[in-house]
Amino acid sequence: MSLRSHPGARPAAVAAGRGVALGLVLLVAATAAADTFVLLPFRNAPGYKELDHLVAGVPALWAEKLEASKGITAAYGPRLLPDGARVPTDDADAGRQAAAVGARWAIVGTLGRRPNWDTELEVRVLEVAGEVVREQHRGSASGPKEKQLEILDRLLGGAAAAAGLLPEGTVALERFHRPATKDLYALYLYGRAVGVYHGLGPGQRRDLEKVESGLRKAVVVDPKFVEAQRFLALVLEEQGDGRAARGEYTAVVERRPTSFWAHQALARLYRAEGQKARALDAATRALKLRPADAATRFLRGEVLWELGRVDESYAELKQVAREAPRHAGARRLLAQVCSSRHAFEEQAQELEVLRQLQPDDLQARFDLGAAYLRLERWDRAAGVYDELCRKSPKHFMAHKLLGDLYRRKHDYLRAAVAYEQAMRIDPKDPRPYFLLAQTLAEGGNYDRADKVLGEAQQFKQYLGEAYNNLGAIAIKREDHARAGAYLRRALIRLPDRPRVRYNYGLALAGTRQLDKALEQFRLAIKLDPIEPEYHVAAGVTLLRLGRIDEAEQLFRHAVVVGDGHAGAARNLALIDELRRRRAEDEVVTPNIAGPSDAGVAPDAASPRAGAAPARVAARPTATSQTASGPALEQEPRAVAKKAKGKAAKGKAAKGKPAAKGTVSGRRHPAPKRPTPPP
C-alpha cells in the first residue's frame, strides 16, 4: 500500500499497547498489520457543543464508506469505532489505540471554528510501526455550516486516496463520493446517537433506548440515510429484537447490496432463527464482499457444519486457521469436525493448539484428554487429566477419568485417590463409589471395598448393582454363603441381568449346590448367548456332574464365540484325553479344569488374556471360588445418560482399562441395560 508522505512527517514515541483489551466486536483475527486501519473519534478542539455530534458521527460515516475498500482490512467491527475508543490526546495515544486492535494505520481528526464561525476540519493519517508513530498524510478544509457535507467528502476523498483506501470501479467510486445524507439535522441525530452508543460525551453511558430513538428519528428525517438504518438494526439486534433487526438489515441490503456488515448480520440472525440455508446464502454474499474476513468465513464454516456438509465446513475452517492462526473458535470447531471425520490425530493437534491459545479453557483440556483416549495414548491422556485436576480441583469427570487411567496401569493407590476425590466433589454421583470399590477389590483391599459398597447402598435405584458387587467380593474372599445372600437380593432387583445370574451360580457352586448352580448358568446363557464364560462355567459344572457330552458341547461353543477361549480349549483337551485313556481301559481320575482353575477362566486378580483393554463392560469370572463381580467399571444406566462431556458419553471409553478378572474384551455389543460402575 502506498501513502504520500507529508513533508512535515514527525515520529512520536508510543507504547505498543500490548495486552490492552478494548473488547471490540472486530474481525476475530486481523490479517497482517500492514493491511489494517482504524478510525478514532475526532477532537472537538474549541469544545463547542454544536460540534459534538461530529466527534463520533464523522468517523462513523467514513468507516461505513471505507467498508467497500479493496485490498485492506478495517480493524473495527460493525460498531464502526472500537469499543472503549476515546479521543486521542496525542499521536502516541492514537498509536496505542491502533496497536491494541492490530491496525497499522489510524485516521484521526480535529474539529474547530474559524473567527467567521466557519466549520474547520483537519484529518491526518498516522502510521504505527512498533513504538513509533509517523504522520503520513494531513489535509484540512473549512467552510460555512451548510457546506459541512461537501467539506467532509473532500477531506475523506483526500485521506482515502493517500492511504490507498479508495474502492475500485466507477460505480463503487460514485457511491463512495455520494453524500450519506443531504439533511444536516439527520446527520446531527446520527452523530449524536453514535456518540451516546460509544459513551463519548462527558459522563455519557451507553443507553440503547436513547440511541434507538435518535436513529429512528434520523431515518424518518431522511429515509435514504442507509448508514443510520444499518446502525439502527445493530442496536435492535443488541436489544434482543432479532426480527425487527432482520427487517432493517434486509432493507439496507436492498438499498445497498454492498453492505458487508448487513449481510454478515443477516447470516448471524438467520442462523439463530434456524434458517440455515438463508444463513449460508447471506454469509456467502458477505464473504464475496470481503474474502479476507476471518469472522465471516468462520460463520460460514459453522453453518456448513450445522447443515451436515462436513467436508465443506472442514475446508472453510482450515482456511480460517491458516489466515488467522489464533482464531480459537475455528480451532475448537475444527477439532469437532476432525472427530466426525475420524481424523483423531488431527483433532488432537488442533486441541493442542487451542490449549496453547487459551490456557484457561478447561473444556479444551478435557476434550484433549478424550482425544488421547481415543488414540489410546494413555500416558498423554493421564498427563492432560492430571494437569486439569490441578488447575480445576473440583472437576469431577477429570478425577473420574484419571482414576480409570491409573487403574488401567494397575496403579490402584493413585486410582483410589482419584475416585475418592471425585466422591468428595459430588457425593450424590454413584459412579465413584462403584469404581472405587472395584479398584480396592482389584488391589486386594476387600474390607475397604465392602465398606464403600455399603455406602453405595444409599443409591436406592442401584441397590441391585451394590448387592451384586458385594456378592462378587464375597466370592473372591471365598465366603460363598455370604455371597449367595447378597446375590439373592440382587436377583430380586435385577432378575434379567446375566452377570448376576452368573455370579449367583458361582456362589452356589462354591457351596456344592451344583444342580442349582447349573440352572443359574443356563439362565445366564439364555440372557446372553454369546458370552463364552457362561458356557465354560456351565460346562465345568456338567463335568463335575459327570455329564461329559453336554459339557463338551458347551466348551466347543465357548471356543467358537470366545475366539479360541483358553479355558474351554483346555477342558476339551482333558475330555479327549479322558476318552482316549478310557478306550485303553485305563482307570483314571481326570484333573478337571474347574472354575477355580486358571485354565477354565481368567483368575479374578488378572485380566483375561486377549481382552481388549478399550472395552468398558467388565464381567465376573467363571471361577468357582473367586469372581470379579459385575462390570464395576461401567456406570449406572441413569447416570450414564446424564453424564456430560465427550469422554463420559463414550469417547473416553475406548481407553478405559479392562477390569481385573473380568471379561472386558467381550466380542459382542454391550447389553442395552449396562450395569453400574465402581
Low-confidence stretches: 1-34, 587-635, 637-678
Number of strands: 7
Give the helix tally: 29
Report helical residue fraction. Answer: 55-70%
Q: Indicate the proportion of strand residues.
A: 5-15%
Q: What number is the mean pLDDT?
A: 80
Largest sheet: 7 strands, mixed
Dominant shape: elongated
N- and C-termini, Cα separation = 66 Å
Structural category:
alpha/beta
- Rg value: 37 Å
Characterise this structure.
This protein is an alpha/beta fold and 678 residues long. The chain has 29 helices and 7 strands. The chain has helices at 52-66, 91-100, 148-163, 170-177, 184-197, 208-221, 226-238, 242-255, 260-272, 276-289, 294-306, 310-323, 328-340, 344-357, 362-374, 378-391, 396-408, 412-425, 431-442, 446-456, 463-476, 480-493, 498-510, 514-527, 532-544, 548-561, 566-583, 637-642, 647-651, and strands at 11-13, 36-39, 43-44, 73-74, 105-113, 119-129, 132-143. Strands 1, 2, 3, 4, 5, 6 and 7 form a 7-stranded mixed beta sheet that branches. The longest helix is centred in the last third of the chain and has 18 residues, at 566-583. The protein is elongated and about 130 Å long. The two termini are 66 Å apart. Mean pLDDT is 80; it is low at 1-34, 587-635 and 637-678.
